[in-house]
Amino acid sequence: MPHPHSVLRRLLAVCSAGVLGATTALVLAPAAAAEPATSVGYPSGASATRYSGLAFDTCTAPPLTSVQAWNASPYRALGVYVSGVNRTCAQPQLTASWVASVSQLKWRLLPIHKGLQPPCGGRPTDAKISTAPATARSQGTAAATQAITAAKALGMQPGSALYNDIENYSQTDTTCRTAVLTYLSAWTKELHRLGWVSGVYMNLNLGARQLADVYTSTAYARPDALWIARYDGVDSLKGWTNIADSKWAVHQRAKQFRGGHDETYGGVTINIDTDRVDAPVATVAHPYKVTSSTALNARSGPATSYPVITSYASGATVKVVCQAPGTKVGTTTVWDKLTNGAYVSDYYVSTASNTGYTAPLPRCTYPYQVTAAAGLTERSGPGSGYTAVGTSPNGALAWVTCQRSGTTTGTTKIWDRLENGHYVSDYYVATPSNTTYSKPAPRC
Question: Distance (Å, rounded) from C-alpha 53 to C-alpha 277?
Answer without folding.
Answer: 5
